[in-house]
Structure formats: structure tokens, C-alpha cells
Amino acid sequence: PSTEMITLMWSFIVSIYSIGGLLGSSSAGYLSVRFGRKKAMLFANIPALLGAALMGLSRLCGSFEMIIAGRLFSGVCGGKLAFLPVYAGEISPKKLRGFINVTSTVFLALGKTVARILGLRELLGSQSRWPMLMASCGFPALVQLVALPFFPESPPYLLMHAGDQEGCKKAIRQLWGEGQHQAEIDDIMKEKATMKNTKILSVLELVKEPAFRWQLYMIVILTATIQLCGINAV
Predict the structure, then answer these.
(1) Residue 32 reports pLDDT greater than 90
(2) 27-33: long-range contacts at Cβ-Cβ below 8 A with a sequence spacing of 24 or more?
(3) What pLDDT shows up at residue 220?
(4) Please, which pLDDT band fits residue 231 given cuts at 50, 70 and 90?
(5) Nearest to 80 by CA among 139, 126, 30
(6) pLDDT tens digits, residue range 102-119?
């Protein structure tokens, strides 16, 4: 192919990850309520493993289309990572909740760092080993797929959405140990009562709602400035 066509294919391979992320994140909220946090995270590993397999075998099959499809599936999994901070925050004790929520961002940055190191030509970034580098994104998904079934479902989900109070208490004891946890259960019940009187807005309704305009501005500004703060360079 010509140089222009190679540039076009490369640009498409890079950018299609974001399209997959948009598709994954748009369905994250529905899946987390429909199937629960734990099952939704398990489902998210399927596109991750599929994408890793497609990209890892692309050179063997001589198909750049497999890289495009693999990047798309990896993006879908990346978009569904919205489950992770929700699940981590809901299963953690109140005194550790803020700390646990921050760790997801720390490990996201750590994952990028490890990927950049592995991408060095002296490691997996060589002409012969790049399929292994592309397929390595399936390793964390495989670990999560094996380990996550041993974790309980989110206690707030069990109580608020599934209506399973006994299951909620069992999950709390498994996560936080034996003891008096009635105060935490009461907090979840209060949140459930509040949610009944709260209308869930779509993205379009959120943008149109004047009451949330300044909060929306703040989120957009913070998200945009994160891209300009130099974290990717670090």
C-alpha cells in the first residue's frame, strides 16, 4: 500500500479504540444495574480477551483488519471500566472508601507506565515480538476473570436494586468481617429511599437541565485540564 494508505490505516487503528470506549461506556450504566456490578465486570472481560486474541494472531493471519477489530473490542472493555470504581467504592468500608476510589486512578496510570516500558524495542516493541505486546492486554482480563468470582456482589446493589437484605448482610460480613454493621445497612436504606424520589436523567436531559449547568461546566473543565497537566508525559 501507499504511504498515504498506511498513514490512514494507522490513524484508524489508533482512533477506533476511542469509538469502542464510547460504545462501552454508553452501556455501562444499564449493565451495572441490570446484571449487578460483579457480573457486569465479568462480562467486560469477554471483549478484552477477544480483542487480545485478534491482535495477537493478526500477524500470523496476515490481517491488519484483525488489529482494527481487536482495538475496537479493547476500547469497549476500556469503556466498561466505569464499573471498577463503582464496585471498589461500594465494597470498601466507609473510612477507606476515598482511598480505595483513588487507587483505581493510580493503577490506571501504573498500567500505562508498564505498557510504555514493555513497548520499548529492547523488550516487546521489536518487529518480531509486537504481537505479544498487543496480546498482553488480555492478561489482566484473564486474572480478573479467574479471581472475581470469589468476590461477593456489591452490598448496596444487593439491597437497593436486588432487594436481597440477607445477601447484603452476608456480603458485608464476607468483605468487612464479623461485627455490627447495622449502621452501614441503615445508610444504604437511606440512600435507597432518596433514590426513589430522584429522577434519573439521560445525558441529553443532563445537558439541558439548568440546575446542573455549573456542575457540568466544572466536570468538563476538570476533565479537560487533566489532559493538559502533563500526566501522560510523566
Answers:
(1) no
(2) 27/80, 28/79, 28/80, 28/82, 28/83, 29/82, 31/80, 31/83, 32/82, 32/83, 32/86, 32/157, 33/161
(3) 87
(4) low
(5) 30
(6) 787 788 888 888 888 998
Residues 6+ apart with CB under 8 A from 24: 44, 47, 75, 76, 77, 78, 79, 80, 81
pLDDT of residue 72: 92
Could you give the CA distance from residue 141 to residue 46 in angstroms, rounded to a whole number? 8
Q: 171: which residues sit within 8 A by CB, 6+ positions away?
A: 91, 152, 153, 154, 155, 158
Put simply, whether the predicted model's pTM sits higher than 0.85 gets the answer no
Measure the CA–CA gap between 62 and 226, rounded to whole angstroms.
38
pLDDT digits (tens, 9 = 90+) for 125-176: 888 899 999 999 889 889 988 998 898 888 888 877 777 778 888 888 888 7
| Spatial separation of the C-alpha atoms in residues 68 and 64, rounded to whole Å | 7
Work out the number of other CB atoms within 10 angstroms of the CB of residue 46: 15
